[in-house]
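Job type: complex structure
Entries:
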Amino acid sequence: MNIVILGSGNVAAVLGRKFKAAGHKILQVISRNASAASELAYEWDTESANYPSIAKPNADIYIIAVSDDAIDDVINNIKLPKQIVAHTAASVSKDILKTVTDHYGVFYPLQSLHKEDADLPETPIFFDGSDEMTKKKLEALANSISPQHVTHASDDARSKLHVAAVFVNNFTNHLYALAENYCKREGIDFNELLPLIDETASRIKDISPSRSQTGPAIRHDEETIEKHLAILNAYPDLKKVYEFLTASIKGFKA
Amino acid sequence: MNIVILGSGNVAAVLGRKFKAAGHKILQVISRNASAASELAYEWDTESANYPSIAKPNADIYIIAVSDDAIDDVINNIKLPKQIVAHTAASVSKDILKTVTDHYGVFYPLQSLHKEDADLPETPIFFDGSDEMTKKKLEALANSISPQHVTHASDDARSKLHVAAVFVNNFTNHLYALAENYCKREGIDFNELLPLIDETASRIKDISPSRSQTGPAIRHDEETIEKHLAILNAYPDLKKVYEFLTASIKGFKA
């Protein structure tokens, strides 16, 4: 397919690379960030532009991959009434695109995407569309870059999915950051924790996390918990997190 | 080396396998759990016994790999005054072994070990010993199964390490469990989150988690946070976790 990408950030860059790798043609990349746009255009051997209003009119699909607060600016500046236009945002309704075209939808990648990464991670896509034709086209595009993981999801389902993603991605990363910070102050090499972090993430492929919970909290091992809290007296913020999540584990019912 | 393993649980099984794979000989495996002991003895082509008191006296190293609350029972039933004896517990002092031998220490694997796993995960070892000879021997044993990740750690350092492990392993797994549970109730396929979980864990090898934090909390994206909290009204426990960790991210300073 011929694709125009609006945006030049992480999602735009990684999706664009996946489209290229799947054999699609990027007709144009458009971004207010002129240097980022021309870098991607160079990488993809295509043209760049800096204003949504000068989007080429002849693409099969237009992907708006900009941050939530920049969507309005793009939408207010394009009219493509006969084309398929989709945004990539988890928590923005597809209907925001109503004024742009009759054929609008969503193309949401459930992944943490970073343009500086050399590898393209496996990326489940959740699509939606205003009509059957739009849905079919977006589904086909999704299948071309992520054949195992393509799901239809309404606005509501996508928002709910985003909540789950916040737990396993943002909150988990925060726990890593807290641990890293603590290790730094204690002179512990954080790298020694990486095998454990890896194993924790990979074993849930085989065993449900509800059934594989370990540690002092689930064992109600108060002696160890007290020992840990004593250590954490030097780290009041960390101590609060420890107490809170220990209580949450104790009270958890699958 | 010739090794006697006391214990037949996850740590005993996986360490024993690693010792075997590194070319050591398991002289005997001892556990109150007779069937688990004989299963491991069969696997390792060695003998099993059910009482610590009948440990063979001629091993180079005795590894006590039992749960924290079972250590006393083992210790009260062995006397090996000239041998090297080490336990594997994070939060138990090495001095608990004083009554057993003059050459005692710790052999702590910083990993989530499960006997049913087919693969043996990379496992950093933190060792300690009552004297130089004991330290050297335990360090050599550690190097034979985990050449990249062997560190000396005092009782105090090991306890502090354990706190970090609780954050990145137990607490992280709890977030996975909460998300899984939520997905089940919302009809979301939890497997679709696995690529994101994987990516979140692996990218911290390249980028510090403090610098790669993403999501509505770090962006102070109150609109999305409100949307998420509205969804979580149906899940009061999850909502509390969301509010708590969102505040923790907002207040975090590396």
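Summary: The longest helix of chain B spans residues 155-186. Chain B has two domains: 2-153, 159-251.
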